[in-house]
Write a structure and sequence with these properties.
By secondary structure, the chain is mainly β. It contains one helix and 21 strands.
Amino acid sequence: MTAVAAAVLLAVLPNTAQAEGSYPDPLPIAGQQIIHDPTVLRLKSGQYVAYSTGGVIGARLSKDLRNWTDAGNAFAQPPSWWYEYNGTGDPWAPDVSYRAGRYWLYYAVSSWGTNHSAIGVATSPSGLPGTWTDHGKVFSSETSDSWNAIDPAIVRADGRLWMSFGSYWTGIRMVELDPRTGKAIPEATVHHLATRPDAPYAVEGPYIVRHGRYFYLFASYDQCCAGVNSTYKIRVGRSTSVTGPYVDSTGKRLLEGGGDLLLAGHGRYLGTGGESIFKDKGRDVLAYHYYDADDAGTPKLGLNTLAWTINGWPRIL
């Protein structure tokens, strides 16, 4: 589709969720495709880096977004404090960004089925694997809390720094960070952004971006991590305030189970989720994983251009 054709299409699209069955396939890629919970960034060097769950934060590199190579891990070995949260020092769901002359890598450490969890942060001068210095805990949760401190994502708003996070345990939350340390401010208010009306409140993996006058909250709903049986899908809502309330295109609050369906499994591309969004040469790109039904449910990298209707709602191309 040409840029002109895409613009014409977006001009006539209604202010509703992406029509079921109209989901485009991910862009074709080659090389190392296996990934889970990807976060992608175009580095100052012009290279693209993708970090993910797996290994000690698995790393991939590309020069063109199409051909990806395995680049090892962000860290050579797990920082010792990770073992407080699981016996293998296994990190989950990283988020990479650039701010104040440094690259920042947020990640979670936890164990399956518990909210005894923590989010940590590391910095790097280049953003490349093997160059990260860990700075310890940003924020944590305990079994007495009604939230789960995993799946971090960073957003800046009106000169302040925020981190959304959450998985099950009543859904998506947000805290303010100290921009100097990158860690939660003392006694930070824990804002509530999205949940489900039914236990076990299956929503996680938030990511927030600003477009125009709105902040858009993307999140993964339903079941992850079950190969071809995964039912992950991406929903979205928006707000004029970074702390909400977020609503979908019908006006239903995400705190009441709302959320426009942006992307769901289709064809061989099942369980689409674990999403993040990055800028590439002026366009927004949605990165996510899917489970390949033609390859025994192996998790792989999905990339699609994220476009916007004239009513200000995102659609994938």
